[in-house]
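Repro:
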Amino acid sequence: MQLDRAEQELLDSVERGEWQSIADREEEAKRYQAYARATFRKDKRVNIRISPKDLLGIQKKAIEEGIPYQTLMSSVLHKYVSGRLKEAS
C-alpha cells in the first residue's frame, strides 16, 4: 500500500513512540465533546473588521483543517478566552 506524505509522517511518528495512551479515554472524550458544544453553539452574532491579508490567512488555515473559516475563528477565540491558547515564545 502506498501512503501519502501526511500518512507516512503519521506512521513515522507512531513508530518513533511519540504517541501516548490516554489514561481515561472516555472522560477525556466527554471533556472535548463539551468543548465542541460550547465552541460551536452559535447563538450570538459579532461583526469585526479584519485586514484582507489576515482573513486570507485564516481562510487558508481553515481549508487545511477542513472546517469553515468562521468556525476556526470561533474556536480560536474560545481557546483564547478559556486560557487554552498561549502565545508562542
